[in-house]
């Protein structure tokens, strides 16, 4: 397996399957800007490679992703950033990346074990299929921080309106068996069998005609878009930005990225 970007994300291609592995197991694959940029680069690499027919996204260690990395920097200091800077940063690395991954014209599978919290949903939900280990738990507890939900609002589409409200209002987790019952995941398997099950599924898909797969994915995504998916996600993202001001009062966290990450991201954007 080849390493990229200081080993934050790993990439491997075999048998027509590109496997992208989050590689910060020491922090439960928490996401910082460097990891997200590396991840997006590998999604685009897989999309452009004619030898890749299926993309698998997984996380090393016990957890798929614990979401945004909130550990770095002074949480009050980001008040000095303008609304425009915060909006542009999140529009790219949260909403923008998730929509771009959703629309990659190749089938994708998320292999989820352990925690998939808040920002972790921004990685799993854009994938076409989700295979969950029996220890997987999905949650978006950010209402407790004073924000109405993470930036990519797949909640209503993935959960249905009433369960989406319950999950957001209470912050409780959805366990793997419940996720299967409501159709948010395709399969639940023992955690020790997760990688093997996902590989078998990916191999079966990779055996199909690439253009037919592309058209099948496009048909489903376009049907969702006709129903308003992308427009709704963008509208909720705009509302989400108002939550940063409220979060200062509720939790002292005006943005859901560490200060160091925000500084480097704004510098990168110029």
TrEMBL record:
Tree of life domain: Bacteria
Pfam family name, one: ECH_1
InterPro entries: ClpP/crotonase-like_dom_sf, Enoyl-CoA_hydra/iso
Name this protein carries in UniProt: Enoyl-CoA hydratase
């Amino acid at each position: 397996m080849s390493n990229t970007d200081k080993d934050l994300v790993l990439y491997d291609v075999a048998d027509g399957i590109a496997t992208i592995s989050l590689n910060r197991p020491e922090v439960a694959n928490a996401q910082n800007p460097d990891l997200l940029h590396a991840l997006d680069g590998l999604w685009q690499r897989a999309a452009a490679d004619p030898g890749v027919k299926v993309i698998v996204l997984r996380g090393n260690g016990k957890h798929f992703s614990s979401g945004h990395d909130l550990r770095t920097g002074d949480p009050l200091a980001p008040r000095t950033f303008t609304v425009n800077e915060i909006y542009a940063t999140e529009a790219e690395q949260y909403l923008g990346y998730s929509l771009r991954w959703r629309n990659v014209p190749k089938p994708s599978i998320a292999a989820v074990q352990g925690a998939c919290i808040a920002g972790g949903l921004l990685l799993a939900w854009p994938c076409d299929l989700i295979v969950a280990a029996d220890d997987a738990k999905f949650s978006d507890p950010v209402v407790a921080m004073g924000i109405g939900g993470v930036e990519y609002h797949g909640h209503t589409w993935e959960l249905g309106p009433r369960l989406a409200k319950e999950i957001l209002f209470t912050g409780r987790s959805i366990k793997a068996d419940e996720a299967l019952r409501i159709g948010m995941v395709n399969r639940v398997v023992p955690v020790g069998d997760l990688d093997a099950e996902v590989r078998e599924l990916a191999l079966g898909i990779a055996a199909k005609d690439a253009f037919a797969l592309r058209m099948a994915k496009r048909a489903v995504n376009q049907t969702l878009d006709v129903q308003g998916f992308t427009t709704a996600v963008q509208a909720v993202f705009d509302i989400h930005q108002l939550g940063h001001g409220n979060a200062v009062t509720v939790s002292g966290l005006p943005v859901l990225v560490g200060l160091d990450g925000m500084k480097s991201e704004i510098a990168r954007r110029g």
